[in-house]
């Protein structure tokens, strides 16, 4: 038995994925070219704010950390790292996109023909809420996850679908595209966040309280090796198998599959509560601030009306 640092045997490319690094760098360069140089080409374009740039850079670093760093290999060895990926990408990075990307770019993107139809679903918030959580639960059915983790194309496509649905799910509460009067009220936004947490709970509960390991790709040697092909170059993996160096995830950790599985469910639930706690605080603060603005506006109008009435009264004295 070895420790997790032994993943170095898979080589530099598998551990630090220069291909995914190139992808995140491309996204970052495109983002800054559009928001710094070409923003005048968009309706309502404006200079990029420092806060937006920092949030986007943080999101890209997190994205690379989840899918380009050794975390990605570890997610195929330990289910707990897989759930860490899920929580960070879909429950943190996805909502951060609404704060990182300026509203004029979101307006342009959401206005594109096909995309417009997709985001039109968000006009009925319960639909994206059910869609994301339903697909997320289906994804974590043992037969589905084991199948997808042995097909690189299908696995990637399903992750892209989940990310798109996560963006759709957070659209009703964080978008800056729709006019304010079309947004849900502060109370409904708070209930919406609670709803996401409630719908995620059954999937986490089944994983945490299962009495035996659910996923062959984390327990069966052949299925695990097939899943590892998603992140390890085939030549490297074939060489290691030929030398008899690895046969399953037990080579890298002393953690039992059931303990790892339970830890994964707990990580997902705990991170969900942490992320949603910040979201609830943000929504409540903005709700309170807007209510105070409304109260101040009502008071200002009342004072102004009283002043005008007094002036009118004095004219006829």
Automatic annotation (TrEMBL):
Q: Which gene encodes it?
A: ctaG
* Pfam families attached to this UniProt entry: Caa3_CtaG (PF09678)
Protein's name in the database: Cytochrome C oxidase assembly protein
Give the source species.
Answer: Salinicoccus roseus
GO CC terms, sorted: plasma membrane
State the annotated membrane topology for this chain.
Multi-pass membrane protein
Q: Which UniProt keywords apply?
A: Cell membrane, Membrane, Transmembrane, Transmembrane helix
- Its main subcellular localisation, reduced to a broad class, is membrane
Q: Which InterPro entries match?
A: Caa3-assmbl_CtaG, Caa3_assmbl_CtaG-rel
**Spans traversing the lipid bilayer:** 12-34, 55-78, 84-106, 126-145, 157-174, 186-210, 266-285
The organism's lineage is: Bacteria, Bacillati, Bacillota, Bacilli, Bacillales
Q: Where in the cell is it found?
A: Cell membrane
